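protien #1 (seq + structre)
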Amino acid sequence: MERNLLPGPSSFAIRRAGFIGFSVPLSLALLALLLMQLGVGASWFTNILIWTMSATGVGCMFCWPWSESKERKEVRASYTTWPRLHQELEQRDPYLGKVIRRPGEAFLNWPEFRAICKESRAAARTSSTGRTPPLPR
């Protein structure tokens, strides 16, 4: 029986966005440290750098609790979008919601899960522009 995902992004997609987004403040922090080592004093550029680093860092910090909350809701809805958690639940594609593993079956291997995610992200982007996504094989 196919059921829809809960509204909004899945817990896996939220956490993935947080990890990817965390590279921005981390890169800016490394740049700030480099500038400090080079002896660059406070300027409008360094001030903007620090503010940008802080704002993006705080934004990424909210992804973790939001993802945890969403994961608990998914478990209550009897599914998971995580590749290695909750083997007793059916596993859904984190972007389109298709069932990709039945309850109790062995976990998908990582390359297989990544391929499914890559394909479904592409299909989700296509469908959000108004075009019909390709049918599953």
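ok now protien #2
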Amino acid sequence: MILTVSGRSKAALAATPTTGSSSPPIRPPTNRQFASRAWPRFDGGMATVRIRKHEAVPQTGSYEVCFGDGRPSVYFYWDDIAGRRLGPDRLTGAEALEKARALARAESSSLSKDEMSK
């Protein structure tokens, strides 16, 4: 057996993981931590704007634009079957997604301008 200066063999030293620090590795959050919002947010606390797709029935649904600062959500209802698209506010899926994205971009840019002026 070949010993090193510390008295341990080369095989034992090779089997010992070296991380470079004495702190334990950071574990990713679990789904429960994300759901309960117990894990710190990665966006630095900035107000966010998100788009959620709701499609309970195939080829019909809505896009929800959610605001992270507590304002009520805005919905864009769509239907890709022309016979069911009777309401004046009902759009095709592509049109509804484009309107939702335009609103989300406008709101997120206004939120970023407000945060920069603070």
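The mean pLDDT is 76.
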